[in-house]
Specification:
The chain folds into 2 domains: 3-138, Beta Polymerase, domain 2, CATH 3.30.460.10; 145-261, Four Helix Bundle (Hemerythrin (Met), subunit A) (Up-down Bundle). Strand 3 (75-81) and strand 4 (86-94) form a beta hairpin. The strands form 2 sheets. A 6-stranded mixed beta sheet has the order 3-4-5-2-1-7, sandwiched between helices. It has a two-stranded parallel sheet with strand order 6-8. By secondary structure, it is an alpha/beta fold. It has 10 helices and 8 strands. Helix 6 runs antiparallel to helix 9, helix 7 (168-190) packs parallel to helix 9 (221-239) and helix 9 runs antiparallel to helix 10 (253-261). 47% of the residues lie in helices and 18% in strands. The protein is elongated and about 65 Å long. The relative contact order is 0.10. InterPro entries: NT_sf (IPR043519). It comes from Vulcaniibacterium tengchongense. This is Nucleotidyltransferase-like protein.
Length: 263
């Protein structure tokens, strides 16, 4: 993406972060990922930055990354990304006007394995950096058919137990989790796209999105049960695209029977 196509707020922030990286000799490059490279960037988009740090300065930079974040703009709040398995990530909210910015700090030696080819916004040695990116192993972390099968029935049953207890908020939350972890990624897989949860899944259109919508219940036990049964049916339909090596015994009948007995 050309930076000139960014909304004005985002363009200003890119320039601000790039200037801060350029001024700090401990930092060697600034990269951008997410919507910046995938497309669909608009005024609601986040900015996903990777700040590349000299290996010998990494500990010092990590200890002071809040200071870097504050220098980049009017920082309102920030926290680290352990909840998504990425402690190197600092998740920030700036403004007003409000803008969400992710700052991930990595060593140059960390660029050997990537989930996507980032855009280079700044580099002290552009040729060396491009060569390193060219040689990197780039692979989106798609889940395998066995990964889905090993988890799907456990998660569906767990949600069904919440319904049986009358814990509707828990059950509805589990349906959202199942869409994010299983149905959405498998629907992306069917469309030949990287498995990105339910991100921009509405753009796929067609019967798959209609199926997914059938797993959205009202705050009512009958509706929640119907949504779980729809989730079972949708999982089986999507599983047929790339079956696991071994299907789980007694499924789906056992989960369907449990759901039907819960009312």
């Amino acid at each position: 993406m050309m930076s000139s196509t960014l909304p004005a707020l985002h363009l200003e922030f890119v320039e601000r972060v790039r200037n801060e990286v350029e001024k700090d000799a401990r930092l060697t490059a600034l990269l951008a990922g997410g919507s910046y490279i995938h497309g669909g960037f608009d005024e609601h988009s986040d900015l996903d930055f990777t700040v590349v740090v000299h290996d010998e300065s990494y500990g010092e930079v990590m200890a002071s990354r809040d200071e870097f974040a504050r220098r980049a703009g009017e920082l309102l709040a920030a926290f680290t990304g352990e909840h998504v398995g990425e402690p190197r990530l600092l998740i920030c909210l700036y403004g007003p006007p409000l803008i969400h910015v992710d700052l991930k700090f990595v060593r140059g030696s960390d660029l050997g394995r990537l989930v996507e080819r980032p855009a280079v916004l700044f580099a002290r040695d552009p040729q060396q950096l491009e060569a390193r990116l060219d040689s990197a192993a780039i692979a989106w972390p798609n889940a395998s058919p066995d990964w889905f099968e090993q988890r799907a029935w456990i998660w569906l049953h767990y949600g069904a137990t919440k319904l049986a207890r009358g814990e509707l908020f828990e059950a509805i939350g589990m349906l959202a989790f199942f869409r994010e972890q299983v149905l959405g990624p498998m629907l992306h897989r069917r469309a030949g796209r990287p498995q990105r949860g339910v991100r921009r899944i509405e753009a796929l259109g067609g019967p798959g999105v209609e199926q997914l919508a059938s797993t959205l219940p009202a705050f009512d036990a009958v509706s929640v049960r119907a949504a779980f049964l729809a989730a079972v049916d949708m999982y089986l339909d999507l599983r047929a695209d790339e079956p696991p090596r071994q299907a789980t015994r007694f499924m789906p009948d056992a989960v369907r029977s449990y759901l039907n007995a819960s009312m």
